[in-house]
Task: inverse folding
């Protein structure tokens, strides 16, 4: 599930302040026990990549996230027009849309706040399982160095996620894309510290979380270059009540995952 939110505009000013008005239990660091997602037999039986039509009755999502309708997200992105697409990854395409900052209803372009909307691809191998992981983890945790998940949608066998829009895009785009002004070393250090704080928060949470996909394309930057971790599709909980977190399934990205770990494949 790649991230590439990289088209700033004149309307991006003061967005950071507006986003803070979206209700959360605590905009700093919270792990509300009520914000959980219960995955039933639909996920357990999913081994062939097919969607299970019973997922609606098997899943219970609670918390401060909004459950959007597909019609609302179509309106927010002008029916997912090609010129609103800002990126594409393994999960699907990412579109930029606009919603009202208070009601979270779709609004006209330039009115309200921008959001990044990930829309699953029919050919995606990630699909439901990664969508559930995103909702499960980002719906449970709130921290300045984790990207904010505003809401979600599953409808007509499509899975969508609605995030705060990160004006400066991914760290990867600033490091490797041609024509981009190089980051100063002071900024790079601040980004590294911010990403480390996000990881430390996950590791030290009540049920420690193992991120498993830490790389520059998953570190997003707001208008002030504050770093936020995104893409929790491969995340998993650490050991709980003596139950091991170790799995024989090798996950991660070559070039970023530890070589000795990938060598066990």
Result:
């Amino acid at each position: 599930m790649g991230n590439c939110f990289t088209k700033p505009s004149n309307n991006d000013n003061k967005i950071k302040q507006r986003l803070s008005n979206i209700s959360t239990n605590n905009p700093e660091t919270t792990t509300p026990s009520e914000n959980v997602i219960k995955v039933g037999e639909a996920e357990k039986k999913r081994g062939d990549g097919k969607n299970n039509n019973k997922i609606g009755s098997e899943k219970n999502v609670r918390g401060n996230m909004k459950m959007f309708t597909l019609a609302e997200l179509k309106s927010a992105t002008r029916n997912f027009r090609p010129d609103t697409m800002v990126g594409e990854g393994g999960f699907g395409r990412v579109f930029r849309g606009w919603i009202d900052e208070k009601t979270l209803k779709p609004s006209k372009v330039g009115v309200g706040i921008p959001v990044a909307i990930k829309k699953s691809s029919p050919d995606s191998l990630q699909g439901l399982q990664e969508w559930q992981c995103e909702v499960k983890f980002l719906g449970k945790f709130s921290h300045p160095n984790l990207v904010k998940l505003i809401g979600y949608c599953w409808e007509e066998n499509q899975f969508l996620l609605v995030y705060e829009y990160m004006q400066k895009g991914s760290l990867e785009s600033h490091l490797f894309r041609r024509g981009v002004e190089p980051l100063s070393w002071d900024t790079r250090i601040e980004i590294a510290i911010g990403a480390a704080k996000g990881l430390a928060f996950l590791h030290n949470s009540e049920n420690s979380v193992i991120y498993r996909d830490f790389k520059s394309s998953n570190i997003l930057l707001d208008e002030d270059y504050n770093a936020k971790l995104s893409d929790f599709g491969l995340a998993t909980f650490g050991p709980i009540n003596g139950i091991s977190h170790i799995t024989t399934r090798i996950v991660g990205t070559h070039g970023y995952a530890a070589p000795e770990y990938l060598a066990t494949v």
About this structure: The longest helix spans residues 185-203.
